[in-house]
């Protein structure tokens, strides 16, 4: 018979999820049945997966390992990414009337509780230690068993019945960081790292680093920005994701190069050193940000002057283009006139040719018959006339 169970504290915070029906696989009879009155221990595990892994995904991994008729290996999974009112959501995934598969050959009489994440520092998938929300939910869950389920589970007589997986067999589970946060599960002491303004911190072994300033976390934009401000990597305090996420974001911390690029509105460093800019790499590395700001102002003034000159140049170019257009029009008109002159010159040449032809004709005629002088003819005629006394 299925065991109805919930944690009032988690249910009130909307952090309790009865997921037995919905999760892939067999939640109600696999790997076998057990008498809950004979349960003796609560075993704490980690899933060795990213924090964001959903319980359904873990169930599918277990089904691929043990077969389609199997089920998820734990009784409870505590989310590493789904939170509600300060608690991580707890998924009830394997009925308490069944024993699961979380401790080799020692599953009967033991409840498997797994926190989603990888708490083995140095492992490639290390997520950092459990979040405060996970630890708070884990403590609420084990307290419900130890303090309030004595009638149904009388052998769970105290917190000494809460053990680590590695206490029962040769394994690193639940990770080599467990001593840092074990008391949070047993005693409810959530480990929140104290941060002061000016401290640098990170989450687990993640690359991102922040500077706490004015109550806000300022992300370092690059490794250069971190080292340029003379911070040392080993000085960074390690906090959990929830603590980091709970700090509001501030403006990023840039390197001097990035500072200048952002101030000047540049996109690339190459653009910074064209057109005679006053800022040089040496100045960027050896001068203060106040001096760099002055250079930026100078650069902006120069840019304004350049813009004005460019405007004047454009006006001059426009005027020149207009003149060029006028010259082109005149050249077109001149070309038309040249054509007309050529036509007239050809007509004159044709007339000259005609004259030459006529002159040649006249010369030809003159050569054939002499031309009589009519004046001389008249004088001879009248002389004869008068001499003979008329006609």
CATH topology of one domain: Lysozyme-like
What's the architecture of one domain, going by CATH?
3-Layer(aba) Sandwich
Decide which structural class fits the backbone: alpha/beta
Proportion in helices: 40-55%
How much β-strand is present in the residues?
5-15%
End-to-end C-alpha gap: 179 Å
Q: Provide mean pLDDT, rounded.
A: 83
CATH-wise, what's the superfamily of one domain? Peptidoglycan recognition protein-like
- Radius of gyration, rounded? 52 Å
Largest sheet: 6 strands, mixed
Low-confidence stretches: 266-278
Q: Can you tell me the CATH class of one domain?
A: Alpha Beta
Shape: rod-shaped
> What's the arrangement of strands in the largest beta sheet?
1-5-4-7-3-8
Total beta strands: 12
Succession of helices and strands:
HEEEHEEEEHEHEEEHEHHHHHH
How large is the count of helical segments?
A: 11
Q: How would you characterize the overall build of this protein?
A:
Helix content is 43%, strand content 14%. It has 391 residues and is an alpha/beta fold. Among the domains are: 8-187, Peptidoglycan recognition protein-like (Lysozyme-like), CATH 3.40.80.10; 200-245, no CATH class. A hairpin with a 2-residue loop joins strand 4 (76-84) and strand 5. The longest helix is centred in the last third of the chain and has 80 residues, at 289-368.
What is the strand and helix layout of this fold?
Elements lengths: L7 H5 L3 E3 L13 E2 L7 E6 L8 H12 L9 E9 L2 E6 L5 E2 L10 E6 L16 H17 L13 E3 L13 H10 L12 E4 L5 E5 L2 E4 L3 H6 L8 E3 L1 H5 L10 H9 L4 H4 L8 H6 L2 H80 L5 H15 L3
Parallel strand pairs: 1-5, 3-7, 3-8, 4-7, 9-12
Antiparallel strand pairs: 2-6, 4-5, 9-10, 10-11
């Amino acid at each position: 018979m299925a065991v109805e169970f919930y944690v009032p504290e988690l249910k009130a915070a909307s952090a309790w999820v009865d997921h037995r029906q919905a999760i892939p696989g067999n939640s109600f009879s696999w790997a076998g049945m057990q008498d809950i009155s004979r349960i003796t221990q609560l075993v704490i595990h980690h899933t060795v997966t990213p924090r964001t892994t959903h319980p359904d995904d873990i169930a599918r991994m277990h089904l691929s390992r043990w077969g389609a008729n199997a089920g998820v290996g734990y009784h409870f999974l505590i989310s590493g990414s789904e939170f509600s009112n300060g608690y991580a959501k707890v998924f009830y995934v394997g009925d308490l009337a069944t024993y699961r598969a979380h401790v080799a050959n020692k599953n009967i009489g033991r409840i498997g509780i797994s926190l989603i994440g990888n708490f083995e520092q140095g492992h490639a998938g290390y997520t950092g230690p459990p979040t405060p929300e996970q630890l708070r939910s884990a403590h609420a869950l084990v307290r419900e068993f130890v303090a309030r389920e004595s009638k149904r589970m009388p052998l769970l007589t105290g917190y000494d019945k809460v053990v680590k997986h590695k206490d029962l067999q040769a394994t690193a589970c639940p990770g080599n960081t467990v001593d840092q946060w074990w008391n949070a599960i047993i005693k409810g002491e959530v480990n929140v790292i104290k941060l002061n303004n000016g401290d640098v911190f990170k989450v687990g072994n993640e690359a991102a680093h922040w500077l706490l300033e004015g109550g806000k976390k300022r992300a370092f934009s690059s490794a250069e920005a971190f080292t340029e401000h003379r911070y040392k990597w080993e000085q960074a305090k390690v906090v959990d994701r929830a603590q980091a996420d709970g700090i509001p974001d501030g403006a990023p911390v840039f390197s001097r190069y990035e500072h200048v690029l952002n101030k000047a509105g540049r996109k690339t460093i190459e653009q910074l050193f064209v057109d005679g800019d006053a800022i040089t790499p040496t100045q960027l590395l050896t001068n203060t940000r106040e001096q760099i700001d002055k250079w930026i102002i100078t650069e902006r003034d120069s840019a304004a002057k350049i813009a004005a000159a460019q405007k004047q140049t454009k006006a001059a170019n426009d005027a020149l283009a207009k003149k060029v257009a006028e010259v082109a029009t005149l050249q077109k008109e001149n070309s038309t006139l040249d054509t007309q002159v050529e036509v007239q010159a050809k007509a004159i040449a044709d007339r000259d040719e005609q004259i030459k032809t006529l002159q040649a004709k006249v010369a030809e005629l003159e050569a054939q018959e002499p031309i009589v002088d009519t004046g001389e003819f008249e004088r001879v005629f009248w002389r004869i006339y008068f001499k003979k006394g008329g006609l």
